[in-house]
Batch of 4 targets.
Target 1
Amino acid sequence: MPLLTRTFIKTGMVCLALALVLGILLALGVTNGLFPVYIHLLVFGWLTQLIFGVIFWMFPKYSVKKPRGSEALGWWTYALLNIGLLLRAVAEPIQSTRANPLSGWMLVLSAILQFLSGLLFVVNSWGRVKEK
């Protein structure tokens, strides 16, 4: 299993564990403004990273020289996704309790980073979706 795949999957597992703890705190009413963070940890932190990691590993070979496409693009995908997720996890509670321009722009930046991550993933994986 490639290092990038292991990194995606293990980071996803950490996000799942954090989301589960956060879900318990939300159910107990201990937290305020963290429901969007909970959803993002589950969807982008856990599911998306698991999917990206497994696809990088198991999809058909791109070519003999580059069986998994560009590893550099894969790492950029990982970095942008997780920086965006971290920014969202910090900015979302601030924006929901004490809205201000800085946390608003942090949310915009996090969305842009996550969008770019998805775009890089598609660019890097597209050529591996083939008949044979």
Target 2
Amino acid sequence: MALGGRPAPPRRGPMTVCVVGGGMLGITLALDLARAGRRTLLVEAAERLGGLATDHDYGAFRWDRFYHCILPGDVCLLGLLDEVGLSGELVWRRSSTGFLGGGAVHPMNGPADLWRFPLLGPADKLRLALTSLWAAKFARPGRLERIPASRWLRRLCGHRAYRVFWEPLLRAKFGVHADRVAAVFLWATLRRLAGARGSTVSREQLGHVRGGYATILAALRSALERAGVEVLTGTPVERIEPRDGGTGCRLRLAGRGAGTRDIDHVVFTAPSRLARRVCAPALAPRIDAWERENPTARVYLGVLCQVLALPERLTPHYVVNIGERNSELTGIIEMTNIVDPDEETAGWHLVYLPRYVDADDPLFDVEDDAVSRLLLDRGLRRLFPDAPIDAAAYRGVHRARHVQPLPLATDEPRPDPGPLACEPPFQIVNTARLRCATLNNDEVVALAREAARAIAGGRAP
């Protein structure tokens, strides 16, 4: 159906589809559409495909720009890796989680660690354990979209356990949105983490591909080429407007692939607020409809991440959650506690120090040196005074303004967006659709495949 409800004229040959955005969502979507017989163009503004999953040159080694891991239950991502021949490159490791509170790091890997946790009494520990179990197994996510996580957790685990354990974590992760983030986000997080634990062990099993996401993206790029996808990187989209008659779109491209393209169907995978910058007014109703159906599209978390390559590790944990109030860090992620540093990082210990903030936070306009002072001097050094920061082989700040759409609790009933459909000449498909999930590449791949089946009439994987 053309814009304005007019019937589209008969098409000669396969539909041409342009996927805007070359992250994991756009890559998977373009690959599946091409395999389903669509002539497919993939356009990415950055110089390389990958989005948040791109790798980085750390001098002595290359590894992911931001931290990623694979869980045993990530069936969609694991299926994609198998399709591109990477199943044999997977490495699985038992991991550990810590909680920094009361001036010390406490292991948090199961009931025994929780029972030894010194900051809560026996009754509070029991309620905390039951809260996590109940939330992961029995909570009903539809109801949790309208309840703030703070209220939900306080009611389940009690005031003291909430104040000592959960409240500082919410403040560290969500900042100004800590009191408004919907409980469904916590439900999704606990449910995903439960899937990392096997039935016979309490510690998490986490995986990665040898060589990190650089290996994955290289394999996906080869798969795109074999499927006949035309890939344009370093090519920002300047304008998207309907063609005369409303039966397709005209794209004006800049950069390496500069020029004009006439496309039957444009699928925009970046945040909808970015679509508003480049779309003609005639396409605004499509953007409005997406945001009504997916209200998480209106608020995004971004991240400023201090990354260090240290000569020694800080802790034995993959993740240390910060329970200290007024910390400038959201957490501490030591990648080389699940990745062999001798094999992957030239013997250096790779540490990510993220600070999540609203996408419009003025901190994004601050220079790297000032961000480093904030995250190191007022962050890591306060928590670990002896950390060998001055001996780091790499010190850098990595930024991403639009990382995660954030579900905020509201008294208004959430609309049911219904199944995805094929809606030429322009439609949005982005991670705001993941209303009952955390943002991870397994969910992203699943969304891409759902969209491809809808657009290709069920002929995609």
Target 3
Amino acid sequence: MKQIINNTDIEEIDFRKIDLNLLTVFAALMRENNVTRAAKRLGLSQSAVSSALGRLRALYDDPLLTRTQAGMKPTARAVTLYPRILAALDAIGQTFDTGTPDPDHAFPPLLRLGLSDDYELAFGPALAKAFRHHAPKSRLVFHQVNSRLAAKALVDGQVDLTLTGGGLTGSQVKRLALGRSDYACLIDPASRSEQHSVSLEEYLARPHILVSYDGLTGAVDDVLQERKLKRTIALSTSHYGALSYLLAGTGAIATIPRHVAKAIAGQTGLAMIACPLSLSDYSVDLGWHFASARASGILRARDLFAGIVSDGLTA
């Protein structure tokens, strides 16, 4: 059997002796790195997936995936096979593509979008509304992921798509640039008479609320350091959604991405004002695992979400 797999002459391969369903199991195991999750994805029992893995090992004469404390780790042979098997499954799937998907099955029954809460606050309502309209029988899950963890979340199969501010790299992921965002400030308008701008002097004099995953510094501090300036960070939080409560009734100021500043100001009594510092803008990207190229439902959701976010960034 090993000689059959390694033989490049397709006419000499006896496909009657090969269960092609094993390839689907292999792809799920590589995506999930876990027998239980792969079984759930495939709608099979755990014992059936374990049995299929045993047959795959015999077929390729290789362990393919070995158990570790962190999950199933693919062998070098499995890593080499993975893109080839995905391409084979894609080719087979395309033979059944009529070009007119059933509206009830055009999207996956469960779609997981990885994003940080600034994008969830700014675009979540529009994304959810559009998804309900186009996929009324499907469920959308917003999964908290920041730009540093987005690629890993895609590769590990934790999410189907990601929405991040750049930082998406890796040979197994692809990205689509949707537009660019920059920064603005939020304040309680009751703390000053002029609500449209703030001088650099006043900006530095005010206490600052920082939104950061590590709670220490942000993009503002890097720019201030270059100019030999410093601000006073009175409070740090990891959630943009907390700002409406933390800023209200105070003289503090928060410098955050413009898209979420606009969303929060539109739903609260806070005022969005221009930042007196020149801060670099950045790309907003939609990412997906390269294996999703054969998952038409995920790609339809990608295209749907891309249009909504792109329009929102330019509004």
Target 4
Amino acid sequence: VDFMKPHHEEEKEFGKISKKGWRLIIVYAIVAIIAHINNHPAIGNLVIFLGLFMVTHRLILYKVINTWQNRTWPAFQRAYTKFLHWNLAKPYRPVVIVLASFVLAIMLFAARQPKVVFFPQGDPNNVFVYVKLPVGTDPIYTNQVMRKVEQKVDSVIGKDNPVVESIITNVTIGVTDPQDQDQNAYPNRGKIAINFVRFGLRNGESTAKYLNALQNMKWNIAGADISANQEQAGPPTSKPINIEIRGDKLEDLISNANNLKRFLDEQKIEGVMELKKDIEDNKPEIVFDIDRERANREGIMTGQIAMEIRGAVFGAEATKFRDADDEYPVQLRYKYDQRIDIETIKNLKITFRDMNMGGMLRSIPLSSVCDIRYAQTYGGIKRKNFKRVITLASDVKQGFNANEVVAKVQRVAALYNPVGNVEVAFTGEQEEQKETGSFLLGALGISFGLMLLILVMQFNAFGKPIIIMTEIFFSIIGVILGTAIFKMDMSIVMTGVGIIALGGIAVRNGILLVEFAEMERARGVSLWEATVEAGRTRMTPVILTATAAILGLIPL
């Protein structure tokens, strides 16, 4: 771009807009207007930005840049050169400074005690309220309960809240965690999704207070298990608190799961939202006990009885309705008020051909060959590595560190003695966190090894690569200091990836310095002067590359 070229002989033109500049501004304005008229605002805004940048550069930026390049930055370089001379005069000085910086960083880090997290969590963009009623609850009643929950949510969020974009309620369908693999339909469950506007439109208001209020709310809705949580950052993982009870006998597993849950709940550990089992051990069912002797005397098979019951309750396909495009099955079954009445089902007539009486058609009531009773059963049995397993899981309340809360739960759970041949183990997010940490440590070692190998091949020596690789150690001092000073959380994933990326930046800058010093040595300059000149001359590109890398990583 013409106005960005150096103008050593035309400095007098800066500080004012020339005729050529006014012509360009007029052209930019016409192009921007045409773009906006033709519904291309992005192009129009880009042209406006270029015009404003040109005007700003002519009137303001040139003077600022000229002052920086000719006065401020050379002053920094002179001060840095003096610092290099002072360090090289006595080589032990930089060693002492680095070691002192490392000790100071460790002490400050230990004093701050930053929290370690798997993935960093910010203010929630979405808050989900999950409602679970007893298994077998009619979806109509579930919807009525969700209405009550909506009123309580509105009392926390408020009407026409500017930071809330939408509140959506689901019943039966889409009621599980979006990150959960289980996306089945459950008539006894509901979910309220509170979606906030994007961060830039919140005017500095934190959405964490709404999550805290919902997590600590007394819902006072009988039979409803209600919890609130925010969206999960990063890839899908299990709950922070995830306790697996493994064994072979289901009765022992259920007994230990109930006892362990009761034991942990009694301790009232801070930060634990609510421990929940992943098994339904009280699913209601209606059992038809067939009197096989009576059925055999009547000449009825158990399959006939089952098909009659199924046809009455769920329906049997009577025919199919066809149109020009598709066909639809026509189901024949009892009316709704009849199929939900157990007495009507008991009086169901079973029609069959009695071969003992010469094939005569007969009808007998269902109650004459069946006894009906109410019972409870299990909703489902999960297995892991060929062993039955029940999981106790819980989220961590907003404002609490997951690792600290899990450590407290582990200390308390160690006091519990399981009954029977049962194994209790902590898995979930903690297990994945350890695996990720081990993987990143391995990746860090491999990356450093590859960098060292490439440097040895490039310089055909071992001393210079070692000098360059030591810069990685110096850069880690900055990571420790930055984490401690700004009271940042240590994210296993993001910090690990950042250290690996930082190692590449430090090695690249080291290569620039060493290669320039080697070029100076080849010209006959002494080692002292070559080192000082390398530091002074390569200071600008080193800082530019480091700054560009930092700015590029900020959005992450």
